[in-house]
Specification:
The protein has 468 residues and is of the alpha+beta class. It folds into four domains: 120 residues, no CATH class; 101 residues, 2-Layer Sandwich (Beta-Lactamase); 85 residues, Helix Hairpins (Orthogonal Bundle), CATH 1.10.287; 145 residues, Heat Shock Protein 90. 56% of the residues lie in helices and 18% in strands. It has 14 helices and twelve strands. It has a five-stranded antiparallel beta sheet with strand order 2-1-5-4-3, sandwiched between helices. A five-stranded mixed beta sheet has the order 7-9-10-12-11. Strand 11 and strand 12 form a beta hairpin. Helix 12 packs antiparallel against helix 14. The relative contact order is 0.05. It binds adenosine-5'-diphosphate. Adenosine-5'-diphosphate binds next to helix 12 and helix 14.
């Protein structure tokens, strides 16, 4: 325990010099004038152990007391046989002893302080810390180990910790530890440890500390309690599986019901066609009503087709992704929309598009959908649609820009959800599944899609794809 009070430390220096002088005085008859300063140096070293200041004080006092009491003629201040060199030698050697001893003591105190700090940190940490010697024998375990297991290293011995590891992980953990020790490489393991209240999962890691010759001198390790995390992971996995199962069920249900709806719809369509053919000269009202039925059938068919396409994408994904030029699916999309483009008088401005990794068929679907929306949601002037792409760091960003009616910020967040529409259905017919399908296809290509738009200011749809 270091003495911090200055008065005490300097007091010790005075006492040490007094004791040394008295002892040397006692030895005077035997030693006469020989080795007058040897015992004084002992007093200096003892005083310097309590600090450099007390050490230097002991040099000063010891010089005077030895001069007066020990050097002949004793009990006199005038000495004839003592040279200046001797005095200087004493002062130099005394200061040297005081300073070296003081520094040693300081270094010793620093090491102790640091050890105490480390012990404090180890006790404050929630993890179990341990050290092992170069042969892998456990040398120390932090207090936390005792709190968890109720055991100490003394109870267990250097390999006793193995007994606390659950049978399921025991062999593997031991083998891994021995392998790490023999290879002098990092050790990692996840295992259950027998604690006071049952087994708990821990994740451990240990690294070797090496000396300047790269030889392992010690192992330092940390074991973190991950039991709550593991339990949570288990619950999460269970919930995810249940969610996946119910999703699959729902998708199957959606697909089956869309599929089964086709048949009665076909019948309604066929019979209304038959009605028109059989009774062509009906009055205006009847013709109007039959026309509405056929329109309804047509819309319903479109919705069912869109639902089936969406469900198929969910269950089957996209086709094989290969390196293709995006110009290819774009040409396909434009071909499919030829009539719509001509009728609307839309102008398409297409820049050359890059090579990407994509399934051409579904990519054509994406472009077709975005272009047809750009035409469908046009403003008062003829639609102008610009299609371009920029490539950066292996990612191609395609943009489809129109001069249509646009939409507000709130709408931009919902249009990619299935069946979400922001414009009136009677004004702009559609299934509400187009953008949801587009989003799904883009995501299956590891890309993302977003829109920038303002009411009356047109919209620009962006999506990313990996470049080829
Ligand atoms: P829909 O079958 O209704 O076109 P989509 O999923 O393709 O369904 O689009 C969802 C909604 O997003 C549309 O109903 C429309 O309100 C809005 N939208 C899509 N594209 C555009 C566009 N280019 N300009 C303005 N609004 C658009």
């Amino acid at each position: 325990m270091p003495i911090r009070s200055s008065a005490r430390r300097y007091g010790i220096a005075i006492v040490a010099v007094a004791v040394a002088t008295a002892f040397r005085w006692y030895l005077n008859p035997a030693l006469h004038a020989q080795f007058p300063f040897v015992i004084t140096f002992c007093a200096v070293a003892s005083a310097a152990w309590f600090g450099r200041g007390p050490g230097l004080l002991a040099v000063l006092l010891g010089g005077f007391t030895t001069w007066y009491f020990i050097l002949p003629p004793v009990l006199s201040f005038s000495k004839q046989d003592v040279s200046v060199l001797q005095i200087l030698s004493y002062v130099f050697a005394g200061c040297f002893v005081a300073l070296v001893t003081g520094s040693l003591r300081q270094a010793n105190d620093d090491i102790r302080d640091r050890e105490a700090q480390l012990r404090f940190v180890a006790a404050a940490m929630p993890e179990i810390l341990f050290t092992a010697n170069s042969a892998g024998h456990m040398e120390s375990l932090s207090e936390r180990f005792g709190e968890y297991t109720g055991k100490t290293l003394k109870d267990l011995g250097p390999w006793g910790w193995m007994e606390l590891i659950s049978d399921g992980e025991k062999e593997e953990t031991l083998a891994n530890w021995k392998l790490a020790v023999s290879r002098q490489s990092e050790f990692r393991c996840t295992a259950r440890l027998r604690c006071k209240n049952g087994y708990r999962w821990f994740q451990c890691r240990a690294i070797p500390m090496r000396d300047q010759q790269r030889q392992v001198v010690r192992w330092f390790g940390v074991c973190a309690d991950i039991d709550d995390l593991m339990r949570l992971e288990g619950v999460l996995e269970e919930q995810t599986n249940a969610l996946i199962r119910s999703n699959e069920e729902l998708e199957r249900f959606a697909f089956a019901s869309s599929h089964d709806l086709q048949e009665p719809l076909r019948m309604v369509g066929a019979f209304s066609d038959l009605l028109v053919r059989k009774y062509p000269a009906q009055d205006g009202d009847a013709n109007y009503l039959i026309g509405q039925i056929r329109l309804g059938v047509q819309r319903m068919r479109e919705m069912i087709d869109a639902s089936l396409e969406y469900s198929r994408l969910v269950s089957e994904g996209v086709g094989e992704r290969v390196a293709i030029s995006l110009d290819q699916p774009l040409a396909e999309a434009v071909g499919a929309l030829k009539q719509m483009i001509e009728e609307s008088g839309a102008a398409l401005v297409c820049e050359p598009l890059p090579m990407v990794m994509a399934d051409g068929r579904t990519m054509a679907r994406v472009l077709q959908n975005l272009i047809s929306n750009a035409i469908k949601f046009r403003g008062p002037q003829a639609p102008v649609i610009r299609i371009s792409a920029a490539t950066e760091a292996g990612v191609c960003t395609v943009s489809v820009k129109d001069n249509g009616i646009g939409m507000d910020e709130k709408s931009q967040k919902i249009i990619f959800h299935a069946f979400r529409r922001v414009h009136r259905k009677d004004e702009y017919p559609g299934s509400g599944l187009g953008l949801a399908t587009v989003k799904r296809i883009v995501e299956l290509h590891e890309g993302r899609i977003w829109v920038e738009s303002s009411p009356g200011g047109g919209s620009t749809f962006f999506f990313t794809l990996p470049t080829a």
